[in-house]
Design goal:
This protein is mainly α. The chain contains 26 helices and no strands.
């Protein structure tokens, strides 16, 4: 099949001329070096890295490896158009490199060339049928176009090659959903989750399958756990090398944020520590790393970074929020309250400031003030589930039980993977003598957290097996 060219006509003519009659590119002038023309919004470290590799390619214009490395640098930092052209140039000089062609397909797809990307992936899959990454990605592309049988074939082939890769099972589960076999989809998703319990894509697909089976309560739990899921792809022989060129500040910060949300705190710490070497005085970076370290209970290092952040930008409320959280982790409640008070003074309309002050008040036994601060926190920010979870606990403590039930319910919807809200709501219904309601919440808890100690404790409390 002839590929549709996405290049301007002059560039396409250049490629055809360079390829020659046998497509080898030998004996023709090498293509021009791809350069970054528009640098607006591009991190200075990325610009320096690109400039370095442009010069290396310019020094060896006929060397396909130099062009490929330049393409990797562009791709790593999500400069898709430049990466796509650089991969094309590398393939002009060495058209037999199918892994390069695979990455050309990835960049073409990111740039919006779905049809060409599909044909390139087909070509690579024929040339390298043993590469699971291309089989899985081709299956995903086929599924997007509605070719369910083609997708099934590719996902099954990928599983034959690597039976330990969760994305392959999730892809095949999506095929089963399209084919009207939700029970098989459930089995495949369970297999994926056995390999990676944090896979949101598996959770979301499992929720869809359970919904199709009419198991609505279980489906709701899994769909909520899978909110904001994104498709993950398998690595290939160039993945690790390309990752090593991810230099951009914004790219690295977003990646660290994703790792933190996925609960991969040590990985987030390592990434941010490496970035800090290049940007030692960046206020946002110092705060983000300190927040991760606080969660890892490395509070000495966190305090050191927060003091540096305060010196760089003294009036920044986020530093005081993080200082308060760090001191809470150290059980230094007076210092926690002092910094929380400062944060509330600097940013009275930021919910997180009131939340951290409420935690300090709770530690000091000042329940009424904590309750008032938590109400203010959710009034200012109704998108953070942990605010409602703690508000439910405090409302129950001050015997505002009806309000506590509502707060717990909101927390459960917003944080379906957070067991305490489920357990506490069940206990509250039991305390109020509402056995039917307690049993209903218990069944949801057992479905979502079958192995959690709180589930066993509820079973004993309610007298059920």
């Amino acid at each position: 099949m002839t590929l549709r060219s996405t290049l301007p006509s002059a560039a396409a003519a250049l490629v055809l001329a360079a390829c020659g009659g046998d497509g080898s590119g030998r004996g023709a002038a090498p293509p021009d070096i791809v350069e970054l023309v528009h640098t607006g919004g591009v991190d200075s470290g990325v610009i320096d890295l690109i400039s370095d590799h442009v010069e290396r390619a310019r020094a060896r214009p006929a060397d396909p490896e130099a062009r490929a490395v330049l393409a990797m640098v562009f791709e790593a930092n999500e400069l898709w158009s430049e990466a796509e052209q650089a991969w094309r140039d590398a393939l002009v000089l060495d058209p037999e490199r199918d892994v390069w062609r695979y990455h050309l397909a990835i960049c073409a797809r990111q740039r919006g060339g779905a049809e060409e990307a599909m044909e390139l992936c087909r070509r690579v899959a024929r040339a390298m049928p043993e590469m699971p990454g291309v089989r899985h990605r081709l299956g995903s592309m086929l599924l997007e176009t509605g070719d369910v049988e083609g997708a099934r074939r590719e996902f099954a082939a990928a599983i034959e090659l690597v039976d330990f890769a969760p994305p392959c099972y999730v892809g095949l589960a999506e095929v089963m959903l399209r084919s009207g076999d939700p029970a098989r989809a459930v089995t495949l998703c369970r297999r994926a989750l056995a390999l990676d319990s944090q896979s949101k894509h598996a959770r979301y697909t499992l929720g869809l399958a359970l919904r199709d089976l009419g198991r609505m309560d279980e489906a709701e739990v899994e769909l909520n756990k899978g909110l904001n899921a994104s498709r993950r792809y398998l690595s290939d022989p160039l993945t690790q090398r390309i990752e090593s060129y991810r230099m951009g500040y914004t790219v690295r910060m977003l990646e660290a944020n994703r790792l933190e949300k996925d609960g991969k705190l040590p990985e987030a710490e390592k990434l941010l520590e490496r970035l800090l070497v290049r940007y030692p005085q960046d206020h946002t970076l110092l705060n983000n790393l300190a927040a991760v370290l606080t969660q890892l209970q490395k509070t000495d290092r966190a305090l050191e970074l927060l003091e540096r952040a305060h010196a760089v930008q003294p009036g920044e409320f986020s530093t005081h929020i993080n200082l308060a959280a760090c001191y809470l982790g150290r059980r230094d409640l007076p210092m926690a309250l002092e910094n929380a008070e400062t944060a509330c003074r600097l940013a009275p309309k930021v919910g997180q400031a009131h939340f951290v002050r409420a935690r300090a008040y709770l530690g000091l036994g000042r329940i009424g003030e904590a309750y008032a601060d938590l109400k203010e926190a959710v009034a200012l920010d109704s998108t953070t589930g942990i605010f409602f979870a703690l508000l439910g606990e405090v409302a129950a403590q001050v015997d505002d039980e009806e309000a506590a039930i509502g707060y717990y319910g909101t927390a459960m919807r917003m944080m379906p993977g957070f067991p305490p809200s489920f357990v506490n709501l069940c206990k509250l219904h039991h305390r109020r003598g509402e056995r039917a309601e307690a049993l209903a919440v218990f069944e949801r808890t057992r479905a979502a957290f079958p192995d959690h100690p709180g589930t066993a404790a509820l079973a004993r409390l309610l007298g059920v097996r």
